[in-house]
User: Fold this.
Amino acid sequence: MEYYQARTMLLLIFIFPALVECKVRLYNFRVVLTNTTKLCSTKSIPTINGKFPGPTIYAREGDNVNIRLANQIQYNVTVHWHGVRQLRTGWADGPAYITQCPILPGQSYLYNFTLTGQRGTLLWHAHISWLRATIHGAIVIFPKKGVPYPFPKPDKEKIIILSEWWKADVEAVINQATMTGLPPNISDAHTVNGQTGAVPGCISPGFTLHVESGKTYLLRIINAALNDELFFKIAGHNITVVEVDATYTKPFSTDTVFIGPGQTTNALLTADKSIGKYLIAVSPFMDTVVAVDNVTAIAFLRYKGTLAFSPPVLTTTPAINATPATSTFMDKLRSLNSKKYPANVPLTVDHDLYFTIGVGIDPCATCTNGSKAVADINNVSFIMPTTALLQAHYYNISGVFTDDFPAKPPIAFNYTGNNTAMNLKTTNGTKAYRLAFNSAVQVVLQGTTIIAPESHPFHLHGFNFFVVGKGLGNFDPDNDPKKFNLADPVERNTVSVPTAGWIAIRFKADNPGVWFLHCHLEVHTTWGLKMAFVVDNGKGPNESILPPPSDLPTC
Assistant:
């Protein structure tokens, strides 16, 4: 009887996600291989329940979410619920070898977490190797029942997931790169809700966003791409941004959204133009010499009543190196900072950290050129452990990691100057930085020009942070903090560090556990551009991590 009641509740949630008030949301995720055709060729891809993108998780603020993940493919799997705070439930966060050991083929694991103090759009994705290329989907968190949005109520809501597509097997792509020590091949196309649209050499209808004149739509835009920051633009239409990374913002109008991997943007679209078909363009951003997939994904916004075969209204995409467009968009983002949704920015800090980020070259006897590309924070390229860090922390297992991650770069230099003569070799290790519970933390993420400068979208697990400052060149610790925005800075979980520039973030370490900080360009994560914070327990059970679940995978 309980089984059928659960199935009935699941059915109601899927059909009426915004109407059903339920304390527990139940989902069954099966990781399976699915034959999929794109770019006029077919391959088998890992998916959840045979869908690309995967199923959407619907819940309300305060709900408990249970997802049973059954691994039915040949690869080890984990899934990360990107942006979910996971208060005291780090065992459900998902990054392989950080908070859990992988789910082996034929095994399953129950992800169990509560959505505390969060509402908006997030995403979920695989967090091992490059499986998130096709294992990803949306998380939609509605406000508590009876609580309105702090913006005009839309008539309808639409999810738009942006991603990348490789003709080749993606695991083969990264395995070859790891073996040779060379950068991996770039993707062949971008997708909108799993569809590329027409690309040179292959006709495809692409995704269509259907609208009715006079109605307003809440677009939940998600960048699930592996390696590309993207521009999103609809011909002839401005949209009003009202939220990023599941935190409300002061509304502002724009014709172009800049969105990095792992970021989400909610925006209101009013269908107030002439009936017809309008081009939706998704194009990449890259303002340096690094290779990027420059294929624009094509989709269409189509008004009800549009005649068949109507020619579309076209638009121009931002230049691939349109740095001003990215800065303009990021500078407009401000926290709503209302009485109900305040911006609780730490005004003083207990830990003042300065992290230089970049790439390097290390020796590799088995690689093609006798060397391999690596990436590092404060010259430490992170080595993945073979036991999960959270397990080692919780059970006090020695030899898995050290807590001596450097708070500053080992050597000061002109980080954004001409560094062609720099030693490109890094150190490596499995190092974490320890924080006392509830301490206030400031991290300045400083880009460097070693080999090549690049924009780095950085993601912090387990927390939201406030982006209190940003700039080009080297951070000036004497003068730049005087210009920090401590009143209404945008609050989010992923932020792009500008090319040859810096970002300053602040957060309160109010979540005990082990929390990953890494570049969300998967190529850089693979190369070691990552570290972890260990947040110790506070006082009493409410400030301590919960015990591990009985079905936690073992290494």
